[in-house]
Description:
90 residues, Monooxygenase, mainly alpha
Amino acid sequence: xxxxxxxxxxxxxxxxxxxxxxxxxxxxxxxxxxxxxxxxxxxxxxxxxxxxxxxxxxxxxxxxxxxxxxxxxxxxxxxxxxxxxxxxxx
Length: 90
């Protein structure tokens, strides 16, 4: 792995900000027990994009890209599960 440098700090900041951006949606979906306002197609496309980012991060050996996209994948996968679960409960 390459040496850590200042550009990695920018990568970690970007990873942190883009990852926590999904926490309010996850919390709102969990609290309201509804994900009607979240597009199923958008979630699926976004999750597929995250999988591509994870593969890319592995290939270029980038910890910031991997961390951000793995955590964001988990958050969005949970939103997808909640969306499917709450739809079945109606």
